[in-house]
Design brief:
The chain has 641 residues and is α+β, with helices and mostly antiparallel strands. Helices cover 13% and strands 30% of the residues.
Length: 641
């Protein structure tokens, strides 16, 4: 009897499956591959009780891995890619190491207040010589981190230094002692030259070939994170370091007073001074970094903005993908993120002498915040992680992991390049031409950020741009799109949600690219094919539209789609999720406090960190959120009770 019933139910199951498969639009034939189908995250097991909190990584010539920690230890890991790596403590007692370099038998690292050299002179496996290469002032403020070193083409060292925060307004950066907010160039003889300033929290110092770059974190005067190419004498936007441009060896002469004549913090904060008027009447006038550059020629714009809350929230080390590593992406740049525990991929190009390019998501899901990366001899990527002082997604507070490519090629945008009238998108695999030639497969919008002393900025001056035409290459490996209304110095979000691969119905693993268009190239434009003229629409009798009552609209709880847009626009989703603790509490936990709508609005503008003592990172005042949006956020939060 059991066998008969089993056979009967098996036939029913197969019958249902056949019906479902024949029902169009009910289920996908097969799911599109995801990140994890190509790049596997593997753990490098550390000895029990070891807290890595990785601040620096470097691979030794013999393949061993050097690991420096924020707790002041240096380990040498033997056989780091094996199932049983061996950790040997090389040094300890150092102060918050946030970078590591190895050469000629010596480790170099940036501590809180100095560049230090470690040597094992007696060859017993541990350091016995701790030598100060160069020391710089510190004021003992917790935020005065120092990062590096990176080695320049001439063999000298580069180190970057965080600013402190003011006592009354902790989110406002200040340089209390010389070289805070600067990149320093330290020579082998122990002398130092100030190199560039304008840095706020430059955690991601790097060398892309012979070019010095760094990534910045969102904050005051920094509307979002981004990547800058640095030359001697550059000013990258944060004014705190301008306090030291009067030093005799400063390569920059711009003063705080001269800066304030253009970007007066009081005028920007109050919305006065004739700055750009926003389309949203609820917002205040503002100035952008590109507009400020018109009067401040020393100001260097980022090559790529990394949209806050989308392409990370606390960007860290950039690293070049060597040719032959990670397949079609060789020569491109990976940027880690500490807050969202993920990696982005950057495609860069020089246009009219200016660096620019696109950022695309690459791999998420790491166990803690990514601070450092280093290439292993087997072409995998070591990932050093920590979240102390700034929370991160993931299930751990620290860690050492490895990213391994399985040699299968994902369907991705390989590169995005600017054109005189749009963009050229190259793919890793041929596209299905029918999908790629359909204009509805593409969507483009552009936006920028405010340049002001308030902590961060929402995307502003958003516009949806019309895609006018598309040309798909004969081999299906690229598509050129013509876009109406390209805007220099704006981020252009390019979405390819409708494009499919030729070898199946697969969509792109990552359909969105964010291209920072600093300069529009010259050259020939696409010939746009004129579509057939549609038949005239039939005349329909006008219908009187009765507007909804204002009171009803004001009291309505936003829909899921509306609140998602509001939270993303105001960068709230960078630190909060509906039902999960990230940097800040989950919205459901806020709802449990049973604040009134008005109280939540008040807390958006004037947070009370003492109400959330279990969260290390204090929420800054979100002055950029309009009152209308703040009330919608409040009503939505209270709807979660």
């Amino acid at each position: 009897m059991k066998t008969l019933l089993k056979n009967k139910f098996t036939k029913i199951a197969f019958g249902l499956a056949a019906v479902i498969q024949l029902m169009p639009g009910q289920v996908d034939a097969q799911e599109s591959p995801k990140e994890e189908d190509f790049f596997k995250i593997m753990r490098v097991t550390a000895p029990e009780g070891t807290l890595l909190e990785v601040g620096g990584l470097t691979v030794l010539p013999n393949g061993d891995l050097g690991v420096a920690t924020r707790r002041g230890d240096v380990f040498i890991v033997e056989n780091p890619t094996s199932s049983k790596p061996f950790f040997r403590k090389f040094a300890s007692g150092l102060h918050e190491i946030l970078g590591l370099h190895y050469e000629d038998g010596a480790f170099y690292m940036a501590q809180r207040g100095e560049l230090t050299k470690l040597v094992d002179t007696d060859q017993d496996g541990t350091a016995d010589l701790y030598e100060t290469v160069y020391a710089w002032p510190i004021s003992a403020h917790y935020h005065e981190y120092s990062f590096g070193p990176k080695v320049g083409p001439d063999g000298s060292f580069f180190v970057s230094a965080n600013v402190a925060f003011g006592d009354q307004e902790w989110w406002r950066g200040e340089s209390r002692v010389p070289m805070r907010g600067w990149i320093m160039n330290i020579k082998r003889d122990g002398t130092m030259e100030p190199y560039a300033t304008g840095m706020r929290s430059p955690a991601g110092l790097g060398m892309l070939g012979d070019k010095l770059v760094y990534t910045e974190n969102q904050g005051d005067y920094m509307g979002s994170g981004g990547l800058w190419f640095i030359e001697k004498g550059d000013f990258t936007g944060h004014p705190a370091g301008l306090a030291w441009t009067g030093l005799p060896n400063s390569p920059l002469k711009l003063t705080t007073e001269e800066f304030n004549k253009v970007v007066d913090p009081q005028k920007v904060a109050n919305g006065t001074g004739g700055y750009l008027k926003p389309e949203n009447v609820m917002d205040t006038p503002y100035i952008t970094m590109a507009q400020a550059k018109e009067k401040l020629p020393d100001l260097k714009l980022p090559a790529v903005w990394l949209p806050h809350g989308i392409q990370g929230i606390s960007n860290s080390e950039p690293i070049v993908i060597p040719e032959g590593n990670f397949g079609p992406f060789g020569g491109q740049v990976l940027v880690g993120d500490q807050g969202q525990s993920k990696i982005m991929r950057l495609t860069l190009e020089e246009v009219n002498g200016v660096m620019q390019g696109a950022s695309i998501d690459f791999r998420s899901g790491f166990q803690s915040g990514i601070l450092r990366m280093a290439w292993a001899p087997d072409k995998s990527l070591f990932i050093g992680e920590t979240n102390r002082g700034w929370g991160s997604s993931g299930e751990a507070n620290e860690g050492l992991q490895r990213l391994v490519w399985n040699h299968n090629i994902p369907f991705e945008m390989r590169t995005v390049k600017a054109q005189p009238d749009g963009f050229l998108i190259e793919f890793t695999k041929p596209v299905n031409k029918a999908s790629a030639e359909d204009l509805t497969s593409y969507a483009v919008e552009s936006f920028t950020y405010k340049y002001h002393p308030v902590y961060g900025s929402p995307p502003v001056d958003n516009k949806t741009l019309k895609v006018l035409g598309v040309e798909v290459a004969a081999d299906g490996m690229s598509a050129r799109i013509a876009v109406e209304g390209l805007r220099p110095y704006f981020v252009h979000k390019i979405s390819l949600n409708g494009v499919r691969a030729v070898d199946g119905s697969f969509s792109l693993v990552h359909p969105d690219a964010y291209y920072t268009l600093n300069s529009i190239p010259s050259g020939a434009k696409m010939a746009i094919k004129t579509p057939a003229t549609p038949e005239p629409a039939k005349q329909v009798a006008a219908t009187k539209i009765v507007p909804a009552k204002a009171a009803v609209v004001a009291s309505a709880v936003p829909t899921d789609a509306e609140i998602k847009s509001i939270l993303a626009k105001n960068t709230c989703s960078a630190c909060h999720m509906k039902d999960k603790k990230v940097i800040g509490p989950a919205y459901q936990d806020v709802a449990k406090r049973r604040y009134s709508d008005e109280k939540i609005v008040e807390l958006i503008y004037n947070p009370q960190p003492q109400n959330w003592p279990d969260y290390a990172t204090e929420m800054p005042p979100m002055a950029q959120v309009s009152k209308e949006d703040a009330m919608k956020i409040a009503k939505w939060i209270n709807s979660l009770r």
